[in-house]
Amino acid sequence: MGIGYLQISTRKKLIPTVEQELIQAHQTTMIAKGTDLLIDANRSDDMTLMFNLLARTPTGLQELCRAFCEYIKKRGRVIVMDDTPEKDKDKDMVPAMLDLKSKTDDILQHCFRNQSIFKDAAREGFEHFINQRANKPAEMIAKFVDSKLKTGNKEVTEEQLDNLMDRLLILFRYIHGKDVFEAFYKKDLAKRLLLQLSASVDSEKLMLQKLKTECGSAFTARLEGMFRDVENSKEELSGFEQFSGHPSKRTPKASSIDFAASILTHGIWPTYVPSELTLPEEMNMFMDAFQQFYVGRHSGRKLQWLANLGQCRINATYATGKKDFQVSQMQAVVLLLFNDLNDLSFDEIQKATKIETDELKRVMASLSHVRMMVLNKSGAPNVISVHDSFSYNPEFKSKTFRVKINAIQAQETPEEEQKTQEGVFADRQYQVDAAIVRIMKTRKSLKHALLVAEIYKQLRFPVTPNDLKKRIESLIERDYMARDREDQTLYNYVA
């Protein structure tokens, strides 16, 4: 109100003095004490007021920008480095990061007017904390995407899912080790495709397109190959139906059995170790016929059956009515043994099926769990021992006609997680080796420090100086390069 009667010459001198004494002199304290408090309490009006006040000083916004970046780093580090011993605490990591991103985006839009320096500060903060814990955030983002693309996720509409995928890709953009995300995403996508767990093929392809736009066609080449294999498998099955050697054309009993096979191109899908499994005659009859059909159609190709990925649907008849069991191939083989015998020991089942001990324990646990009880078991409930015996349960009850018991196939075991991580590590070693050889082949001779700097420019993932040193030593041992005799810090390429 008082400014109106001040002369222009007075006002020009007075306002900077007032801003200096009332704002700039206190801005460091204001920012240090107010930034975190106002953001945490969602006091956007007060945050806007502080922004407007600090905009009147020469360095106010720069200081606020640094404080905003530090806020994101501190809050983000708590999310990704949470040492709480609570089980599966990491599952809350991605939702917490999304919440933090939404909060900071709101602050940027409503309080900081989307100014570029604050956007850059937010990007720096997220990129810093999300890479503080190597590999885990990338793994958890991939698993979170998997949970949202699976059948049964009915909590969001297609439009909401599309929006969520865009938000997740922003987090993905901050990750340095994108190969970790790719490895876990590929493993989970394979299960969704092979076990028919995808909620929507359109959503799967949309996510794939988003990844392709973000990272390029090289990143998604193998993922796209998996979809091609699924489509090609349908064509192969259509041809098999017309095959003269089809079991249903030779054996009337086979006409009641439906058979399907997925043909996976080696090198495109995750690496699967074949499991030994003794199959019933009916299953072998179809598999042998399909092998004959496929090899005859594609000369030079070879099929390897993966029993641990197989699925079956078995009809069962109880006094209360019929049931349709959706089971894994291993579960099916075990259940079919009880068509002829009411009681079998763990050892007898293993001898009949040849299933490995730990895998058979998982299978028997799923069939005799107190919530399912397809089979009765001796001994402690929900704990499988090699000394247990199992029997047919005539009192089995379920409210639904179709009973899904093959959930164990979709679950990730600790061994699978470790195998995926080891695969990423092995691939990184090959990429580091290839980068070093490319550089040395071009430069011929190079100092250690310069070589390390060149390697960092070429790699898409983080790597420690100690790991680089190990790869260099490995290449020296394999005669790809050699240390200079006069200068041990100089490397020479060996042609």
Instruction: Work out the number of β strands.
Output: 9
Taking the sheet with the most strands, its summary is: 3 strands, mixed
Order of helices and strands: HHHHHHHHHHHHEEHEHHEEEHHEHHEE
Question: Whole-number average pLDDT?
Answer: 90
Our measurement of the CA-to-CA distance between the termini, rounded to an integer number of angstroms, reads 82 Å
Principal-axes shape call: globular
Strands of the biggest beta sheet: in what spatial order? 1-2-6
Number of distinct helices: 19
Radius of gyration: 31 Å
How much beta, percentage-wise?
5-15%
Low-confidence stretches: none
What are the defining features of this structure?
three-stranded antiparallel beta sheet; 9 strands; mainly alpha; three-stranded mixed beta sheet; 19 helices; 495 residues
Summarize the entry for a quick read.
The chain is mainly α.
If you had to describe this structure to a student in words, what would you say it looks like?
Strands 1-2-6 form a 3-stranded mixed sheet. The chain has a 3-stranded antiparallel sheet with strand order 3-5-4. Strands 7-9-8 form a 3-stranded antiparallel sheet. It is mainly α and 495 residues long. It contains 19 helices and 9 strands.
List the helices and strands and how they pair.
Elements: H1 8-22, H2 27-40, H3 44-54, H4 60-80, H5 93-110, H6 116-130, H7 136-149, H8 158-174, H9 178-194, H10 201-215, H11 217-241, H12 281-297, E1 311-318, E2 321-328, H13 329-337, E3 343-345, H14 346-353, H15 357-368, E4 375-377, E5 389-392, E6 402-404, H16 407-410, H17 414-443, E7 445-447, H18 448-458, H19 465-477, E8 481-483, E9 490-493
Helix pairs in contact: 2-3, 2-4, 4-5, 4-6, 7-8, 7-9, 8-10, 9-11, 9-17, 10-11, 17-18, 17-19
